[in-house]
Design goal:
Blueprint: H1 13-17, H2 23-31, H3 33-36, H4 41-52, E1 55-58, H5 66-77, H6 82-88, E2 99-103, H7 107-113, E3 121-124, H8 135-147, E4 152-156, H9 159-163, H10 167-181, E5 185-189, H11 198-210, E6 215-217, H12 229-246, E7 251-253, H13 261-275, E8 287-289, H14 291-305
Parallel strand pairs: 1-2, 1-8, 2-3, 3-4, 4-5, 5-6, 6-7
């Protein structure tokens, strides 16, 4: 980790209530991200290889089994086929995904499969995806995941606190979750698609950061609207202003609906433009995705062969 961990601050309601969002300006800026910047040829290869290292390779299905998590971990250890790596001359880079993200019950399996690598296990916790269980149950789930070896915990906030402007309750709950995480890094999922307005997204981002979140994350991937560029722009500008006011850097994780290499590049362009090169490293930026791995590998094979392979030739695991 290249920066000091965000310890959080006291809840400053003045900072929260002073937030104003120009929705039209946000939408205009977001609409031009894919047209203002582009990368080609070997530079595009470099960006795509970097994107692979930023992925939290995720499986959060009701029918998850130890077997498919083992396959997921194998893909995380070697997300790009050996022949493609050799053709690109990057075998020595030892490229892996940023993490593997699973439900609590499968943390031990993932930890065992990733033993000897630098790939951490992230556990979704706190009554994921709705978060509508008692606080003591949510805190105990965090502690158990950490005890099982999870190095990162993706918590979900109680959306009602945002929708009713109960910022003190939101702060207190996220703060308690951060304490339960201990040394494990905490990503606070805001469920942006369920917060109603961009201003609510910005306010929730600030409260989560003040409560000590190491990352703020858009979505569980289970909402009807998940990661979008407008949500991202609002959240990363909150991160930028928080760093300016406190000196502490907070990471960002868009999740849900990011399936193509083209989409990934747009998010990376935005991060570099708004926050700088430092936010293109795994300790400050992650994608929550699974299908994205296959499409990036597919694009890399195209650079090697000049032909697009069928998507099923690059399975997630």
């Amino acid at each position: 980790m290249s920066h000091e961990r965000n310890p959080g601050t006291a809840l400053n309601l003045g900072w929260v209530e002073d937030i104003h969002i120009n929705k039209s300006a946000v939408e205009r800026r977001s609409a031009t991200i894919g047209t203002r910047r582009t990368v080609k040829k070997e530079w595009q290869l470099a960006w795509l290889l970097k994107a692979m290292t930023l992925i939290d390779l995720t499986t959060l299905a009701g029918d998850d089994t130890p077997g498919n998590v083992k396959r997921l971990c194998a893909k995380a250890r070697r997300p790009i086929r050996e022949d493609i790596l050799e053709a690109l001359g990057v075998t020595s880079r030892h490229i892996t995904t940023g993490a593997v993200c699973v439900y609590h019950d499968l943390v031990k399996t993932a930890v065992h499969e990733l033993e000897g690598t630098k790939v951490p296990v992230a556990a979704v916790s706190t009554g994921f995806p709705a978060g509508l269980v008692p606080l003591d149950t949510r805190l105990e789930e965090i502690r158990r995941s950490v005890a099982d070896g999870a190095k990162e915990i993706d918590i979900v906030i109680h959306r009602a606190h945002v929708l009713t402007n109960d910022w003190q309750s939101l702060y207190d709950e996220v703060r308690a979750m951060r304490e339960a995480c201990g040394e494990a890094h905490m990503k606070a999922i805001l469920a942006t698609g369920e917060l109603g307005t961009l201003r609510n997204v910005a306010k929730a981002s600030w409260v989560a950061m003040m409560a000590g979140s190491d990352f703020i994350k858009t979505s569980t991937g289970k909402e009807s609207v998940n990661a979008t560029l407008p949500f991202t722009l609002v959240m990363v500008r909150a991160i930028r202003e928080y760093a300016s006011r406190t000196g502490f850097k907070v990471g960002y994780k868009p999740a849900g609906g990011i399936r193509t290499a083209k989409q990934a590049l747009e998010y990376m362009f935005l991060m570099k433009d708004e926050l700088g090169r430092e936010w293109l490293e795994p300790d400050l930026f992650r994608f929550g995705a699974s299908a994205l791995v296959a499409d990036i590998e597919r694009q890399l094979e195209f650079h090697v062969t000049g032909r697009y392979a069928a998507f099923h030739r690059h399975p997630m695991a």
